[in-house]
Amino acid sequence: MGVTGPIRVVVAKPGLDGHDRGAKVIARALRDAGMEVVYTGLHQTPEQIVATAIQEDADAIGLSILSGAHNTLFAEVIDLLRERDAEDIKVFGGGIIPEADIPPLKEKGVAEIFTPGATTASIVDWVNAHVRTTAA
Q: In what side-by-side order are the strands of the sheet with 36-39?
């Protein structure tokens, strides 16, 4: 049974970070590429993000973090997806994330990290290539 329809992505700003311009730019780029996008707004908890992704039947969660809390917040989202048997929802993210933090985040289960300078086209291409890769 293949999944049909557009890729569904929840774009979220976890934690106390109040800068959402980048998240909005990514949400719009994904939408313009034909994906269904739910933007959760600022100051979301990992619990709220995971609940939204499950409720919206999302294929992926895109997290934007500039606050430095990426190690904690990404891990909480991954752990909650596991607890809710929703590991099929891919998690990717971006923001101000030091290169040294990327390998441990990927080991934890984050599918991809985009750092400053990543183009919207490269993010759209990655989502198209890696989310729902088994869909018919």
A: 36-39, 8-12, 60-65, 90-95, 112-114
